[in-house]
Design a protein that fits this description.
DNA-binding, 3-stranded antiparallel β-sheet, alpha+beta, Arc Repressor Mutant, subunit A, Chorismate lyase, 6-stranded antiparallel β-sheet, 247 residues, homodimer
Chain lengths: 247, 247
DNA sequence: TAGTGGTCTAGACCACTAT
DNA sequence: TAGTGGTCTAGACCACTAG
């Protein structure tokens, strides 16, 4: 038996192996607890070196798809409690992943001078120009969140001329400005809805709200966006996957 | 110049390099934005192969200490907004890391039969015996959180005979039962304090509460604990670091 | 003892970036 | 053109686990 790879492809060999295995796991062809081919077997099957097979298994491990036990083997991990683990996707992609239809209503779109906090978050100088967007986020036409976002103007000229109600902000940043989101910091806290939030989300005053403050960065650590999202607590939970990064 | 490693040590060479660099970054000897030695330089300095140097840099990258730009080099990342990024530490370790003095008061310690939800979370059968602990968590002697935890009895015989007020649960699990926490899933939501929570935390009824539900697993994916922690929203925020795991 | 994952070597070619 | 990170090879020895 062998598993042929496309050696002419631009896609690295380890990434091809990673994809093949991930698909098998997601299709349940490799069930939870089942053994995955060992590093040496996989190398033989795919006609690659063991280090390359190992790299594929390592990335699957870091994503939580498999786990490894020394002296025993590599096995498919149990499915996570909630597959909607928080990642770098934007609202649009996240809602689609949950099988909901996302939409947006722009409440505010302005250019402002950055205050000291926003400037610090974005790594720019206070007084530099920023876009300030406020949007109501809906899922299946029901209000889910109120969003308050700041982006540096100089990195995204004319961003405010794009159609942010029709198109995903993250998609525009990628296709128009070539931005690849790389990592983000999120701070979550709980609060009670004030008048403004309650009205926007059509909930009672003082209803519980989950605030997610996210700052997104590119690989070279330039801040792309600082955004606070106020979610209705009765319709949204945030799921995270934590690993022991001790390597 | 060279950076000698201890080749007789049990600690892998790449981990030694990782530690040296991490310490330099944390001591600010390597400042944000500064170039880290390239993979080839580092290999030469430490007298290791390039792959080993690369492994050290990769683990630093995955922890967010450095970033790499193809064709340019490796650089120290800006310090994260909040160094208290959520990790696998328990309450005791987390509070100490924040410079606060943690303490606990046990409100309940019982053996029960697992209900269907708890059983599913722990990967055991409904009706199997579980420990049920409720603790009040204090930081600097002020109530911070109410905690509701379940652990499978068969994996931790006599756990309820240990002193959970004096010692960290995670420490006991490690030293007595040899458990190494490996990964966890967390679901965060916002709510309002009910009578019981409000009384325990000495806050007003309906004050905002951040609920963190965590299930911790070992490397071989056995559930160790399912715990819901109800934090006073005015005294606690949760910080996460997200990466684009596309490798 | 045979097989596993963990670590390590000493090379190699590639695409990319800066000068 | 020189230097960088990204990928890949074909080996090696180790500690660990199971039968």
């Amino acid at each position: 038996m062998n598993l042929p790879l496309d050696r002419a492809s631009q896609v690295p060999l380890y990434a091809q192996i990673h994809e093949k295995l991930r698909r098998q796991i997601e299709r349940d062809e490799l069930k939870a607890g089942a053994a995955v081919p060992s590093e040496r077997e996989l190398a033989e099957l795919c006609k690659v070196s063991r280090m390359t097979a190992r790299q594929a298994l390592n990335s699957l491990k870091s994503e939580g798809f498999v786990y490894q036990e020394r002296g025993i083997g590599t096995f498919v991990a149990k499915r996570k409690l909630d597959v909607h683990t928080r990642n770098l996707a934007g609202f649009t992609e996240e809602m689609r992943g949950r099988g909901l239809v996302p939409s947006s209503k722009i409440l505010l779109s302005e250019r402002e001078r950055a205050g000291p906090d926003t400037a610090t978050e974005l790594g720019i100088n206070a007084g530099d120009e920023v876009f300030h967007f406020q949007r109501l986020r809906l899922a299946d036409d029901l209000p889910l969140a109120f969003e308050d976002a700041y982006l540096p103007v100089r990195r995204f000229p004319d961003l405010d001329k794009k159609n942010l109600e029709k198109e995903s902000l993250y998609k525009i940043l990628g296709s128009v400005y070539g931005i690849v989101m790389h990592h983000a910091e999120e701070v979550l806290e709980a609060t009670c809805a004030d008048r403004k939030i309650a009205d926007a989300l059509k909930i009672k005053l003082k209803s519980p709200i989950l605030i997610v403050h996210r700052v997104v960065f590119t690989e070279s650590n330039l801040a792309v966006e600082s955004v606070r999202t106020f979610y209705r607590a009765d319709r949204y939970r945030a799921t995270f996957f934590l690993t022991n990064n001790a390597v």
